[in-house]
Amino acid sequence: MLPNQLTPENFAKYPPQARQFATTQIALLRRLPLTFLPLLLRELIVYDWKFPAESNELVRQVRYLGSLADGPFQSAMSSFAQLKLTSQLEQTDWVNHPAIFSEQLSAHLWATHQIDTFTKTAVDYMSKATAFAPDPPLVTHRFGMAVIGQGVAKNEGYRLFRKLRPHGTYYTHVTRANVAVLLNAARSRLSSYPVPYGHWYIDGGASLDSTGLASVSYSALAAPRAAIQARMQKTYEAPVFDPEAFRTMLAQMKPEEAGLSGGGDNVLTRFQFSLLTEGSGTQVFSTTFVQWAAREALRRAQPLTLITRYSPRQREKQMNELLAERQHAPDLDPQGSLIDADMGAYYTWLNQQRLSGDDKSAFLAWFEDHGEAVAISPKLDRGKTSDAPIDLATIIEKIA
Amino acid sequence: MRHVDIPGRTPHAISQSRRNFLRTVTGAGTAAALFGPASLHAFAAPKNRKAVVVTFGGGARDDETFAPDGQENIPHLLHDLIPQATFYSNVVNKGILGHYVATASIVTGVYETFNNFAAVSPNNPTVFEYFRKDLKRAATDAWVVAPSNGFARIGESGHSLYGPGFGAGVILPKRLLSAALSSQSDGARYQHLLRDNYETPLYAPTLAGRQIELDQMAGILKLSVDDFVAHASNLVSPDELSVYIAKQLMRQLSPSLLWITLHDIDIAHSGTFSLYLDGIKRSDRLCAELWQTIQGDPEYANRTTMFILPDFGRDSDIDSGGNGFQHHRTGDAVSRTTWMMVLGPDVKHNVVVDRPIQSVDLIPTLGAYFGFDARLSSGKPVAEVA
């Protein structure tokens, strides 16, 4: 089927809000080329479980496209339309399975050397859509906090915060530091700026008291992880392993199949499920889980406040053993986890800087139960080291 | 999401960064100072030449290798090998960035376009087929040691003019060990050598190739199953197992063309930065070990050129489409731009070549080195070492 053949009935299997959105916009959807439309539908089909920021993003794109007269519209879509597809791709059920279509499209673009053109085209399109309706001013600046190194008695020679230090002030003698100080800062910002899904806490172990915050915990997801691990292991151990079917299996898995059923916050539940089915390594390594969860939270929910706390991950083993984590207490690797988390903190800062308000945003990374921290803010010097004793709360007061 | 305002990376900038760093660390000069136009000719190709190719994989970035923060991970490359090497700082891979298809592209000198996860042979003749057919070399003179089942067909192509009968023998050490352990009671002691990285489980098509099976190992490598298993117990990773097998091949058969694909680094797909660094450090050490082995073996010393190159890089930190070191999916400059190090008796020492070359240039270079014609390759011989 081609886009110009779309009818409202094609969206019958979509969730209610997504179906309504698609039906309302069907005239526009019919005009879009097949190299573009399924990518938009991949976002639209999960409209019912989107965070406010990403719903707004989808609406912005549709408004942008709808605002274009015929000429500019053709111009905006021409580069997408010129990409060559196969008839096999055209015959895919891209309306109901846009994510699978996207995977196949990606493989096709790589194989036919069109991936660079596609990437450039997509970046150009997104920058024009963003320029059409710039992000509104933030109610306050963004503030990210990363806690790394839980369980490490002594850092064995790894130069911590090496990538963050050039962008802020590095403190070598932080006192009166604990996670509660950071959580209090997050709650204070929540109280002052009660934006839905605006304040997050992601923990690689068991979650501390996080009332009011959008909270994600690796330990709390132990049961769904075990269910997904079991499914992965079964596929992995099949006599004939089909790697593409493996990805499809994960993409088609439903939250209730992993024990993540409705009740409570459906949007957050779906988000957590996606971390385990779309991330690589998130099912078995807590450090990877935290880094990926922070990336996705920033990309999708665009929070004002984000705390990430890393805990030790299990040691590297053969995949079968990693996936069998539920059957025995895992052997932990605190020192390796410290290095993972150090890089994870840097990536979280980078991802925060990709959002609006980057010129005012602040970031703090602290080595848990130790005196090292780095703070980044327009109010602080860049590339400076401070050896003077300072409370963690005092650093936060300066930049929060 | 927007791009962060950190200086971007173009292939030229990446190359300049590597060269400046090497000059600082090793005092390396540029090729322009040593190679005038008259010097750009092929050396004679004596019959007893040998070549060892090592793919430094799968996929390592400058940030963790040749950039200032990365140097602590590659002490052997920097201090032991580069002073003896000609170093190409700007090697571009314009193909598909999947490990099997990219390695196949390097092996054929043509950007192959097959499905990375399929159990297929390369479409174009491999270096092993050119080498064996043109030079009339025996089957025992060309070997591949590869990390996983996915590479079983890397030894010979499906090309009608070459293909079956002209390829290299393929050894998949993990498969051998796995078979050997099936009769052992303490297999658990060896699980670390059989591990696959996060993406490799997605990369284990049904075996179909000319790979050596366990019952052939004793005859070919002069290595009993018990000795193999006993030695493996002292190793820490699949790449160590591969290098052990490669050394055994060198000792027993002295092949003239030996291709070793390292892969520990690809643990990066699991998102664990420390394990990725461990893989780089191990690859660095193993490359130095291989060069020492070459120098200490009369069959190889003073007649062997070793080529070390990553199959490709990994995504940059600043491309919002990726997740940094974890994958190689964006096709950005950092993931496409790598390096190549060449060591050997005819190779100038401590020289950096900035001129862009491509990963498909390796096979025509080997052709010029050995004296065969890689006629279907789209690459060109690299003059300084061809």
Commentary on this structure:
- The complex is a heterodimer of chains A (400) and B (386).
- Chain A is α/β, with parallel strands linked by helices and 400 residues long.
- Chain A has two domains: 3-132, no CATH class; 143-399, no CATH class.
- Chain A is built from 16 helices and ten strands.
- Chain A has helices at residues 16-24, 26-31, 37-44, 52-67, 70-81, 87-90, 98-111, 115-132, 179-192, 222-236, 243-252, 266-278, 286-301, 319-323, 334-353, 392-399; strands spanning 143-148, 169-171, 174-175, 199-203, 214-217, 305-309, 362-367, 373-376, 384-386, 390-391.
- In chain A, the strands form two sheets. In chain A, strands 5-4-6-1-7-8-2-9 form an eight-stranded mixed β-sheet, sandwiched between helices.
- In chain A, helix 3 (37-44) packs antiparallel against helix 7 (98-111).
- The longest helix of chain A is centred in the C-terminal third of the chain and has 20 residues, at 334-353.
- By secondary structure, chain B is an alpha/beta fold.
- Chain B has a single domain, classed as Alkaline Phosphatase, subunit A, CATH 3.40.720.10.
- Chain B has helices at 11-26, 31-34, 75-81, 99-108, 127-135, 173-181, 191-194, 214-221, 225-232, 238-253, 273-296, 333-336, 362-370; strands at 29-30, 50-55, 85-92, 142-145, 169-171, 257-261, 304-309, 337-343, 351-353, 357-358.
- In chain B, strands 1, 2, 3, 4, 5, 6, 7, 8, 9 and 10 form a ten-stranded mixed β-sheet that branches.
- The N and C termini of chain B lie far apart (45 Å).
